[in-house]
Amino acid sequence: MSDSRSVIVVGGGVVGAATAHYLQQRGARVTILEKQTFGAACSHGNCGFVCPSHVLPLSKPDAISSTMKALFRPNSPFSIKPRLDIKLWMWLMNFARHCNERDMIAGGHALQALLLSSMEEYERLVREEIVRCEWQKKGLLYVYRDKQRLDAYEPTNQLLTETFNEPAVKYTSDELAELEPALKPGLAGAWLYEHDAHLRSDRLMESWKERLLSEGATLREGCEVQEIVSRDGRAVSVNTSQGEMTADQIVVATGALTPFLERFLGCKIPIQPGKGYSMTMPRPQICPHVPMIFPECRVAVTPMESGYRLGSIMEFAGYDDSIKPQRLQLLRDGAAAFLKDPYCDPVEEEWYGWRPMTYDSLPIIDRSPTLENVWIAAGHNMIGLSMSTGTGKLIAEMMSGETPHIDPKPFRVTRF
Ligand SMILES: Cc1cc2nc3c(=O)[nH]c(=O)nc-3n(C[C@H](O)[C@H](O)[C@H](O)COP(=O)(O)OP(=O)(O)OC[C@H]3O[C@@H](n4cnc5c(N)ncnc54)[C@H](O)[C@@H]3O)c2cc1C
């Protein structure tokens, strides 16, 4: 990509930020158009896990039965708001179609390539001080109260070990108490993914912004892209809430809102918003030092250098932007069941984010099938932070005509 190439990146989330970074590295002049403020959407208050261990797609063979059970359980962290929404029902049907061993393994390999590439890139970005984000590599613990459920994870661990070379270390109740004294005594045990890392997502976004601007990027906030204007198979401009803008190439990195641009992209974008919540507060007195997930109630705990976050919940409720107190209570209750000192007042932020959910759990990283200078980087599901740097690198390579460092075929938009 020569110095003269100009690129508009639509969307200032973690995927847009990473894309802008790798394009800048290749000499592109980058303008980021963000309808709100940079880094304020789903990339802001997430749990901050950079977790190559999350290789398995959500669409596992047993996902339908466990989803149905969760739907009808009171106080479940998973819910679907009943409504007549054809796109949602199509999405759910397609999700069910992918709940089989073959798709799970194939999807897992595709995700793993992106996750490992992203981890390598994060480590470099942190080492070279390109981003500052309270990076810590202490692993990720899956903690259980119930011994049967702890042991029931064994086949998944075996699959991850044998097929993906991603083994976890099993901790007995006593070993766990020694590893993490912040946990209550008497828990059944845990699985530890030693190679996972975590960071503070809002700090990461502040740091990306500073870096991109210092390297010459232009950022327009409060600037919504409303239309991509095209002629003869090329985008010629974008119409925005701040007027018309032009560039040689355009990348659409608009997360869960990407379906609103579908009609300009010439393809289906089956992304549903999967709403999650988090609460950020000061570190409690007895603060865990390893980040953890409690799979039995699906609450995640992130001990950060400068704070502490509880997060979870998956609501398919459309683009609902309310924060429901009973959902936040689930986070508190979940943490209280496992931790000696589960939270700390005052809560500094109560937050929600719309995860960009595709039905096969894979992101879209591809060129528009109808516009040769328009690219899409969206649909990163529950692990968009963990896959962002690999995505940015991959799309920058594809746009520059370089040989991609990982196989982009599984992420093609024409698979839908
Ligand atoms: C509770 C919770 C916990 C999570 N924990 C983790 C975790 O631990 N690890 C992990 O890897 N992932 C996690 N995730 C998922 C992760 O946050 C997302 O996958 C990721 O942030 C998606 O990034 P994005 O850049 O695609 O989207 P976003 O961050 O949503 O960014 C998209 C941006 O595009 C802008 N935009 C949209 N439309 C337009 C338009 N027309 N014009 C201009 N701008 C536009 C939006 O305003 C937004 O700022 C979590 C999510 C939630 C909700």
Computed Rg: 21 Å
Supply the number of structural domains.
Answer: 1
CATH class: Alpha Beta
Bound molecules: flavin-adenine dinucleotide
Spatial separation of the terminal alpha carbons: 30 Å
Low-confidence stretches: none
CATH topology tier name: FAD/NAD(P)-binding domain
Write down how many β-strands occur, each being a DSSP E stretch of 2 or more residues: 20
**Helicity range:** 25-40%
Number of continuous helical runs:
11
3D structure, described in words:
With 416 residues, this protein is an alpha/beta fold. Helices cover 32% and strands 25% of the residues. It has one domain: 3-Layer(bba) Sandwich (FAD/NAD(P)-binding domain). It is built from eleven helices and 20 strands. β1 (6-10), α1 (14-25) and β2 (29-34) form a beta-alpha-beta unit. α1 (14-25) packs parallel to α11. The longest helix is centred in the first third of the chain and has 27 residues, at 101-127. The model has no long low-confidence stretch (mean pLDDT 96). Flavin-adenine dinucleotide is lined by residues 10-16, 33-36, 41-43, 46-49, 224-225, 253-257, 276-278, 311, 353, 355-356, 378, 380-386.
